[in-house]
Design brief:
5 helices; mainly alpha
């Protein structure tokens, strides 16, 4: 596993970022002019995915990080539901729906994998680290990965 020093290093955050960017691009379409509430809601939900991943990472504790990843997953599912509304109202076509839904699914798989890893890990998180000079080498390595 690669060393994770910043939330930007997390594949889950990167996937969520690309999904949010794609949602913003699609909602620039003129068809969303008829439904500014849905446009605003789907943009907020898709952006919330990446925001919760970064906030959870920034908290510095494994348990809190898992909690925020769960919130991110909820926002991702909310975005997927909103994709259905956009498709059902002909704001997006089937191909666009399928592409965005696939991106959301991929982000969800990566978030699930990260949650599973963290739940099985013995590492508590960065905020629980002792002075790194006094830590055993294997703990230093794991903490650098988190």
């Amino acid at each position: 596993m690669a060393t994770i020093r910043r939330f930007e290093d997390l594949t889950a955050w990167q996937k969520a970022r690309w999904f949010s960017k794609a949602v913003y691009a699609v909602t620039r379409n003129r068809t969303f002019l008829d439904d500014p509430d849905l446009k605003r809601q789907i943009r907020r939900a898709s952006g919330s995915v990446m925001d919760n991943i970064s906030e959870g990472f920034g908290r510095g504790g494994r348990v809190e990080f898992v909690q925020f990843l769960g919130i991110a997953k909820g926002s991702l599912d909310e975005s997927k539901s909103q994709l259905y509304r956009a498709h059902d109202n002909d704001y997006i076509d089937q191909t666009t729906f399928d592409d965005l839904y696939a991106q959301a699914d991929e982000a969800g798989r990566v978030i699930d994998g990260l949650m599973s890893y963290l739940k099985e890990s013995d590492v508590k998180g960065r905020k629980f680290q002792r002075d790194s000079a006094s830590q055993p080498e294997e703990l230093k390595t794991v903490n650098r990965k988190l």
